[in-house]
């Protein structure tokens, strides 16, 4: 049971003070409320309060100016910081200033009460050290949507740890950007950040790229070469597109993660390693495990903290902020400042963004470079988007696939896929990968339409029952979950 406590609440909003006072009092706590920082500091410096709940922006002072003094005077005092600013930097500043928890406004009252209970139940620590470096003025992550708030809070909790993080998300959602933020605002910020894209390296060179090689280790090895593990010593190694790593390299990587040491290709002397691992993929690793393409034991090693980045279509309310950010960037690069009409922004908000934030950034740069007018209309936005993908931009309420055949959708997907490679070719095995991408949703939706009845599903698909069962196992389809899904074709 949560202990009764004396809780200090500071917020400029009288309604929030009233709500918190009532809720915390009903929970059995004594509550004191104030609307200014000066009074809060007077209470804290006098030794009052077992916990502080405070907003960031107050009438007389920003709470971040006070937090270092509180941490110095009362290092054991837990502080819950609330804010309506809801940015990545707000969450990071709260974490670095020693806040116990950061809550974006509007917040869930039950969640706040749970946080209060956890904070009061935990042993009192010695407090966090002050931030070692000045804050970067540039915002590494943009967005105030609920989906992004969850990301910010998770990142803030991870900054002072070395836990391995597994970032998943579609191409263009910003996986490397998040990995860099974890490094640059974490405790390894003084060390190197070394990225390596598994999909961009020939399979027979991946082990050499990761672990380095000795002179004469293979044909063409004219001298010793350092690998990415050695280059990342003391810092962060970002393993992008880890789902494309061949099995041989997966085995060696697992051994490094288990033993904390590795040997170069052609070498015999073990080398100790001290790096933080952050991995990322746009693939479903559990499906690859079922197909024998990814080691299950490696998955559990790297999936310590899973972090899913939402696609842009799930956080469309962030698009105006992102557009302003990208226009500000291109203006610094010497291009003319632009703005988009409300109707034009509506077109952008309702577009499905298959290329996610990367696609949005490319569009903004193209608009800034190609159009002389200061204000860009909805017609211009429609023209640019439809010209790029050769299909009509969906109107509000329409689905992206409306009016398009499956063949056209696949063609559009492959057009975007090859465009993102910038003239390079993808790794071998594209045929099987594309068939797998289509096969999974096909079988999943047919099973859902048949309410999980595999006999009817096999008949509908034109497959043998044993073949269907094999496919279900290979693709990792949860038949129990499927049987509970609503049939996609039912009214």
From TrEMBL:
Response regulatory domain boundaries: 6-120
Cellular location(s): Cytoplasm
Protein's UniProt name: DNA-binding transcriptional regulator NtrC
GO BP: any one term: regulation of nitrogen utilization
Organism annotation: Nitratireductor aestuarii
Modification type 4-aspartylphosphate: residues: 55
One GO cellular component, as annotated: cytoplasm
InterPro entries per UniProt: AAA+_ATPase, AAA_lid_NorR, CheY-like_superfamily, Homeodomain-like_sf, HTH_Fis, P-loop_NTPase, Sig_transdc_resp-reg_receiver, Sigma_54_int
Primary role: Member of the two-component regulatory system NtrB/NtrC, which controls expression of the nitrogen-regulated (ntr) genes in response to nitrogen limitation. Phosphorylated NtrC binds directly to DNA and stimulates the formation of open promoter-sigma54-RNA polymerase complexes.
Gene that specifies this protein: ntrC
PROSITE patterns listed in its UniProt record: RESPONSE_REGULATORY (PS50110), SIGMA54_INTERACT_1 (PS00675), SIGMA54_INTERACT_2 (PS00676), SIGMA54_INTERACT_3 (PS00688), SIGMA54_INTERACT_4 (PS50045)
Gene3D superfamilies, alphabetized: 1.10.8.60, 3.40.50.2300, Homeodomain-like, P-loop containing nucleotide triphosphate hydrolases
Keyword line: Activator, ATP-binding, Cytoplasm, DNA-binding, Nitrogen fixation, Nucleotide-binding, Phosphoprotein, Repressor, Transcription, Transcription regulation, Two-component regulatory system
Domain Sigma-54 factor interaction residues, every copy: 141-369
Pfam families cross-referenced by the UniProt entry: AAA_lid_14, HTH_8, Response_reg, Sigma54_activat
GO molecular function, one term: sequence-specific DNA binding
